[in-house]
Automatic annotation (TrEMBL):
PROSITE patterns: AMP_BINDING (PS00455). Acetylated. Deacetylation by the SIR2-homolog deacetylase activates the enzyme. GO terms for molecular function: ligase activity. This is Acetyl-coenzyme A synthetase. InterPro entries: Ac_CoA_lig, ACAS_N, AMP-bd_C, AMP-bd_C_sf, AMP-binding_CS, AMP-dep_synth/lig_dom, ANL_N_sf. CoA binds at R195, R196, G197, N198, T321, S535.
Length: 666
């Protein structure tokens, strides 16, 4: 649980921001929705499902007869791609822009209408079929932020071939693990994408990953490659039997494709996320409930008016936010949106705001870490552009601190735009806890309360609801449509991770701490397990520890998440070297070199996002008599605090040795 100082600081926050009158008067969702949903939750979600086009209507809204395995809209059939694309064209919106795509190099833009998207998705579906993809097969997608990524995802959905999108910043090893775990037979990738002003390669990592996956028993049959940068393909080059260019097979394919109606519970995708062990969890989402949950929440939380709004979610499609709020939710709602390839400071620190001005973005959704970065860069960058089109601002990924909330509202939102702080997870698929922009009087730093149709609570270790003014564990007390159905190939771990702690009550354990304030509104307090949140991305302490000990010079490692002004948390590692490496490191200057080597090693094993901010080489780690590492004490060191109670340590002098090391800056 978070310390009481953080809690009381947050609780003394008493500013309130009422919804703007105009927005409230015309809001998609009014206060009555809470009562309606509370009166009959399943009828509420059934009504939300009517937003979609179904082949066959469902017989039963929810089958919860075998918890925790839920089935939503049982007996119903639908096609996610048809719902996201074809039906808008059929309704006469073919000329409406679906994607205003902005490449990182200036002037490199493309607008895709819904009609364009339909043609592309059909072509890609035909091409994937040609490459041997059948309903039920898994397809890995490792791509930059380009329209073809969205097209590839929707083409897979159309065929009923679950995709697993792996963030382009992950390493070849991480990609290989995911390919092997879900046995993907096809990979869709690009030669590279643009980041920070330069082409950044992807294809060589795919080659390496295919080799590694093969060693783990999974042969990738085909690799479909988009030419984006035209860069050199690296040493391994091109495998004529395996590799095919997108522009060869997709461009020549027919734009006619008859879509099958899939079962409501047909797997839509697997998204890997870090857990408390070294092995990432494959979160499985299915079709009908997921699309209902994402479409409804995208429409309600952002007050989307599909005819006039221009929506922009800055998340990469490699994360769940990109899946739910860049691809499935917005497209199911027929939204017009912006998609940007590159980094926010390329070629200048006002790039995002320039894009907002150019396209007249009305709804903007980003993460606190980005907001804090812009605060640091200074108001002059957004100040150069006209941001007056913006009417709703969203935040996701980690708790938003009141300072960042206020800056966001003042500087980006002209002091009047509502900020919706949306709490959810890869597992929940959809936003669960959030203000509604036309209903809620927002409090800076609070995600406020569960959305209509969602049931959340804060409970004690024993599962009792805590009174207002107290903190505890966040739980979800009733199933919801976009909930994960299981972990790919591991029902046991699914039960154990999320449902075992409150098995008696049947609650879903989110792994987050939270507090109810005096009004009963919720304040999220971060993870309560060995999972870190760095820039809104989930990283596992164990996974990084395993990466470190896989280095030949490392004997043992302990990793903690330390508070960081910019990234929320940062990775700090404590490493014990093998005997042979100790002497080497002791030599003048060698220590720093080794630290760099270890940081690079973590980047290679997992990805650059997992690189520790700091690595301390220490002689011992603090352990209890039963051998458990006391991360709490290491966190004290990492956050430069007085070290806490050491009485349960097997050897209480260990912390003195570590503190000495800190003093020397090693
Ligand atoms: C974890 C889920 C959901 C998409 C992005 C991250 C933290 C997320 C908030 C928020 C406080 C938040 C939680 C959660 N988190 N949004 N608005 N306020 N914390 O997805 O990688 O699945 O991580 O992110 O700790 O458990 P994810």
């Amino acid at each position: 649980m978070p310390d009481s100082e953080t809690l009381s600081n947050l609780m003394s926050e008493n500013r309130r921001f009422e919804p703007p009158a105009e927005l409230a008067a015309d809001a998609n969702v009014k206060a009555e929705a809470y009562d309606r949903a509370a009166a009959d939750r399943l009828a509420f979600w059934a009504e939300a499902a009517e937003r979609l086009d179904w082949g066959q209507k469902w017989d039963e809204v929810l089958d919860w007869s075998d918890p925790p395995f839920a089935k939503w809209f049982v007996g119903g059939t639908l096609n996610a791609a048809v719902n996201c694309v074809d039906r808008h064209v059929a309704a006469g919106d073919g000329d409406k822009v679906a994607l205003h795509w902005v490449g990182e190099p200036e002037g490199d833009t493309r607008d895709l209408t819904y009609a364009d998207l339909k043609d592309e998705v059909c072509r890609a579906a035909n091409a994937l079929t040609e490459l041997g993809v059948r309903k039920g097969d898994r397809v890995a997608i490792y791509m930059p932020m380009i329209p073809e990524t969205v097209v590839a995802m929707l083409a897979c959905a159309r065929l009923g071939a679950p995709h697993t999108v792996v963030f382009g910043g992950f390493s070849a090893d991480a990609l290989a693990t995911r390919i092997a775990d879900c046995q993907a037979k096809v990979v869709v990738t690009a030669d590279g994408g643009y980041r920070r002003g330069n082409p950044s390669a992807l294809k060589p990592a795919v080659d390496e990953a295919c080799e590694k996956a093969a060693e783990n028993g999974q042969t990738v049959e085909k690799v479909l490659v988009v030419r984006r940068t035209g860069q050199d393909l690296g040493e391994s080059g091109w495998d004529d039997d395996r590799d095919v260019w997108w522009h060869d097979v997709v461009a020549s394919a027919s734009s006619e494709h008859e879509a099958e109606q899939h079962d409501s519970e047909h797997p839509l995708y697997v998204m890997y996320t870090s857990g408390t062990t070294g092995k990432p969890k494959g979160i499985l989402h299915t079709t009908g409930g997921y699309l209902t949950g994402t479409a409804y929440t995208h429409w309600s939380v952002f007050d989307l008016k599909p005819g006039t709004d221009v929506y922009w979610c800055t998340a990469d499609v490699g994360w769940v936010t990109g899946h739910s709020y860049l691809v499935y939710g917005p497209l199911a709602n027929g939204a017009t949106q912006v998609m940007y390839e590159g980094t926010p400071d390329s070629p200048h620190k006002g790039r995002w705001w320039e894009i907002v001005e150019k396209y007249g973005v009305t709804i903007f959704y980003t993460a606190p870490t980005a907001i804090r970065t812009f605060m640091k860069w200074g108001d002059e960058h957004p100040g150069k552009f006209d941001l007056s089109s913006i009417r709703v601002l969203g935040s996701v990924g980690e708790p938003i601190n009141p300072e960042a909330y206020i800056w966001y509202r003042e500087t980006i939102g002209a002091g009047k735009v509502p900020v919706v702080d949306t709490w959810w997870q890869t597992e929940t698929g959809q936003i669960m806890i959030s203000p509604l922009p036309g209903v809620t009087a927002g409090k800076p730093g609070s995600a406020m309360k569960a959305l209509p149709g969602v049931s959340a609570d804060v409970v004690t270790e024993a599962g009792e609801s805590v009174p207002n003014g107290s903190g505890g564990y966040l739980v979800l007390t009733e199933p919801w449509p976009a909930m994960l159905r299981t972990l790919w190939g591991d029902d046991e771990r699914f039960k154990e991770t999320y449902w075992a702690k409150y098995a008696e009550q049947g609650f879903y354990f989110a792994g987050d701490g939270a507090k109810k304030d005096d009004d009963g509104d919720l304040w999220m307090l971060g993870r309560v397990d060995d999972v870190m949140n760095v820039s809104g991305h989930r990283l596992s302490t164990t996974e990084i520890e395993s990466a470190l000990v896989s280095h030949p010079k490392v004997a043992e490692a302990a990793v903690v998440g330390a508070t960081d002004d910019m990234t929320g948390q940062a990775v700090v590692a404590f490493v014990i070297l093998r005997e042979s490496a100790v002497e080497e490191a002791d030599e003048e200057g060698e220590g720093e070199e080794l630290v760099q080597e270890l940081r690079q090693h973590v980047a290679k094993e997992i990805g650059a996002i997992a690189k520790p901010r700091q690595i301390m080489i220490v002689p011992e780690l603090p352990k209890t008599r039963s051998g458990k590492i006391m991360r709490r004490l290491l966190r004290d060191v990492a956050e430069h605090r007085e070290v806490g109670d050491v009485t349960t340590l097997a050897d209480s002098t260990v912390m003195d040795l570590i503190k000495q090391k800190e003093g020397t800056g090693a």
